Amino acid sequence: xxxxxxxxATSCLLVAALLPNVALADPPxxxxxxxxxxxxxxxxxxxxxxxxxGGGVTYRSIEATYVFEHQEGRNFYGTFISPTQSELLIGTxxxxxxxxxxxxxxxxxxxEIYDTNKMEVCYSHPLGTGGHAVAAxxxxxxx
Length: 143
What we know:
Blueprint: H1 2-18, E1 32-43, E2 57-60, E3 63-72, E4 75-81, E5 86-93, E6 99-103, E7 108-115, E8 118-125, E9 133-142
Antiparallel strand pairs: 1-2, 1-3, 1-9, 3-4, 4-5, 5-6, 6-7, 7-8, 8-9
């Protein structure tokens, strides 16, 4: 009996591994305004975080607004707005139409839609692009 269960489980795993990763019919419409508070680890000064950080590692939280202006299928563009500046964003959904990537002029965002009007966005900005580094995640709610 144990051998039969083991072979059955192995067969199921093999079949699942051979099936294509099926995408949702259409990506969700993200056009509109999304807001949330970041949790960020910041090294150095500048960018979207206040310039008075002192140059070391600090932990920051800022209000983040993402305004997605246009979407065509999986692709989109918009603006990231913080209390100190705004930047153009371009992005695309992954094949599962739930996760994807975005970029601005100096960093990369990974995102995941996890509820109808909820999105988590995580940003990375390496040290070599402007004298500061940022690792931040934000839970956003569509307004």
